[in-house]
Design a protein that fits this description.
Order of helices and strands of chain A: HHHHHHHHHHHHHHHHH
Largest sheet of chain A: none
Structural class of chain A: mainly alpha
Number of strands of chain A: 0
Strand content of chain A: under 5%
Oligomer: homodimer
Shape of chain A: elongated
Radius of gyration of chain A: 29 Å
Amino acid sequence: KKKLGQDDSRRIIHSLKFGLALTLVSLIYYFEPLYKGFGNSAIWAILTVIMVFEFSVGATLGRGLNRGLATLVAWALGFGAHYLASLAGEKGEPILLGLSIFLVAGVVTFVQFFPQLKARYDYSLLIFMLTFCLVSISGYREDEILEMAHQRVSTILIGSSTSVFICLFVFPVWAGDDLHNLVASSLEKLGSFLEGFGVEYFKIPGDSKESNNTFMDDYKSVLNSKQSEECLANFARWEPCHGQFRFRHPWKQYLRIGSLTRQCAYRIEPLNGYSTLRSSGINCLQILAEFRSKIQEASTNMSLESGKALKELASAIKAMTPPSSVTPHIVKSKDAANDLISLLRSGFCKEIDLLEVIPAVTKIAESINELASLAHFRSVEPMVEAEKPKLLHQETNPPCCGVNEPHHVITIDQLSPKLP
Amino acid sequence: KKKLGQDDSRRIIHSLKFGLALTLVSLIYYFEPLYKGFGNSAIWAILTVIMVFEFSVGATLGRGLNRGLATLVAWALGFGAHYLASLAGEKGEPILLGLSIFLVAGVVTFVQFFPQLKARYDYSLLIFMLTFCLVSISGYREDEILEMAHQRVSTILIGSSTSVFICLFVFPVWAGDDLHNLVASSLEKLGSFLEGFGVEYFKIPGDSKESNNTFMDDYKSVLNSKQSEECLANFARWEPCHGQFRFRHPWKQYLRIGSLTRQCAYRIEPLNGYSTLRSSGINCLQILAEFRSKIQEASTNMSLESGKALKELASAIKAMTPPSSVTPHIVKSKDAANDLISLLRSGFCKEIDLLEVIPAVTKIAESINELASLAHFRSVEPMVEAEKPKLLHQETNPPCCGVNEPHHVITIDQLSPKLP
C-alpha cells in the first residue's frame, strides 16, 4: 500500500479530494435551512458526487455534462410519458407506463452495444434510463411532481458543480497531460531498447560482466497500451485550455502516433526473443561466425541510431518542439541499413528484422511532424518541417542503385511495410 | 443498426430481457398493497436492476453477490458510525459523521487504485461507499432507521433476485462459453494466417489471379485481446456448472493460453509485413532469386504444418478433447524447419522469422495439454498426453548433429525463445 502511494502521490491527493467533495455535499444534511429546502432529495447530491467525481479533470467534466444533459432529456421524456399515460385513464395508465419503460430500457440497452457510443455515452445512457424510470413511475404516485423535479435538479446541480469545482481547482489532474506523457514515454522505452539491443546482441558470450538490462523489458508495456490511450483521449476532449494545451488540441493525432508506436513494438518483440537467446548462451549468429565481425558495426549503428531517433522524437513531444534534430539519426540509420544490405547480399540475413524497425520509426517521425503542425508546436517554419521526411527519401535513394539492379538490391525504403 | 443485430441476435434478446426485468420490478408501484409495504424505497428495486443486470450470467451473479455483501457491510458500518456519532451530543454528531465520511471515502477511493482489487471489487466498493453515506447520514435525519433498513434491504433483494432469475433462466449467456470460444477462435485465426502465408509469400509476382486473402488480416484482433479475455475470465469465475463446464473450471489456464497466443501473434505481425510487401510487388527474396526454389518447399511446409497444428489445437479446445492429433503436425513442421536450417546454412536467412513461430506453437500445445488435464477433457490417458511434447523434443534432436558441430548448426529447439 505504501509503495503505491510513493509511486504516485497524485492518487493520495485524489482520495483526499474525493473525501472533501463528499463531506462538503453532506453538509446539506446538517444545516436545518438547507435540509428543509431539499428534503429527501438531498441524497441525490451525494449520489451525483459519487457518480461524477473522477480522477482527471476531463473525465469529471465529461461525466458532469453528460449527467446534466441526460437528466434533462430524461425528465422531458419522462414527463411526456407520464402525461400521455395519465390520459389513458386509471386502468390504462400502468399498462402504458410499463410499455414505455420496456421500450426505453430495451432501446437504450441495445444502443450500448455500439462500441463508439458505448465509449462516449455509456454513463449518459445509464443516467438517462435511471431518470426516465424514476420520473415516469414517481409521477404515478406523487402529485407534486414539479416540486420534486425542482428539488432533484437543484441537488444534482449542487453535486455536479461541487465535483467539477474541486476537481478543477484543487491540484487538478489533466487527462491530456497524461496522454501526452504516455505517448512520449512509450517512444522513449522503444528507443532505450534499440539503443541497448546492438550492444547486447553482439556481446561475446563468455563475457562475465552482468549487464543491467532490466530496461530491455520496459517496452513490453507498449504492446498493450491501446485501451488506456483511447480512454485518456476520450477524456482529454472535454478539457479546457490548460498549460501548453489549447481546448481543441489534436488529441486524435496522439492516438495515431500511439498506434504506430505499437506497430513498431510488435516488430521489436521478436528481436527481444533473440536477445533472450543471447543471454542464455545461444547465438543465432554462431551459424556464420565469419560474418559476425563484418556486420557488427553496421548492425550496432543501425540499432543505435534508430533508438536515438525514437528518443529524439520522444523528447520533441515532451518539449513540444518540432523534431528537427531527428532527421540526422534517421539518415544515419538508413545509411547503416543500406551498408548492411550490401554486406548481406551474399551472406547471412538475420538482421532484416532489425531493418524492419526503421520504416516504422520513419512513419512515427512523419506522424509527429504532423502533430507538430496541427498543434502549432513552437517552430520557425512548420510547413518545411512537415515536408522533410519526403526530401529524406529522395536523398537516400541515389546511393543504392535500385534502378539498375532491380533484382539484386533492395533499399530500406522499399522494405517499408505498408502500415495500416 | 440492423447489421449489428444480425451479427449477434443475443444482443437483441439481452435488450428484451433487460426491459422485462425493469418492467417486472416497476410493478411494485402499480399494486397498492406492495407500494404500501415499501413506500419510497421502491425506487431502490429499480436502481438495483439497472446496476446489477449484465450481459452474461457470470457478470450478473458477480454483481448481485457483490452488491448484497457490500450493502450488508456498509449498513453495519454505517449503523456503527451513526451510533458512535450520536454519543457525541448534538454539536459533535455532525463533525464526527463528516469525519467518518471523509475517512471512508478517502480509503475506498485509494483502494480502487490497486489494479487487482479494482478489477474484481470496483462495483462493490462503489455500492459500499454509497450505502455507507446514505445510512450514516440518513440516520441523522430519520428516526425510524431500522424500518427504513428493512424496506431498503427487501427492495434490493427483490431487484437482485429478479435480475439473477431472468439472466439465469431466460436464454442465458455464459461468460465461460464466450471465453472458451474466444481463445479457440484466436488460435484458429493464427492458424489460417500461417496456412495461407506460405502460398502468398512464394506466389509469382506477375500472377494475375487475385487471391482472396482477407482472412490474412483476421489475426490482428488477437493482438489486443488481453483485456476482453481477462474480463470474461473474471465473470466466468462466478458461473455455476453449465454445459460442459464445471463450477471451478480452470479459467486461469485459458488466460495463459491466450497470453501465449498473443506472443505467437506478435511473432506473426512482422511476417504480415513481408506478405504486404509481396502484394505490392516487392519480394525480399528477389535479392537471392537462386535460393528461392531451394527453400520454397521447406518454408511452405513449415508454415502450413504449424498453421495446421494451431487449427488442430483450436478444434481440440472447441471439442474439449486432448489435442492428440496435433503432435504429427508439430513434428512435420520441425522437420521442415530443420531442413530449412541446413539449406540456409550458406544462404539467405530470411525465414528464421518463420522458424520463431514454431516454438511459440509448441508452447501453446503444452499449455493446452495442461488445460486438458486440469479440466478433465474426455481422454483415455491424460497423463501420457501431457508428457508427449517432451518426448517430441528428444525425438527431433538426433537428426541435427547439434553436439558435433556446436558452432554451425542450430536446431529448432535451441531457437525456442524463453517466453515470459
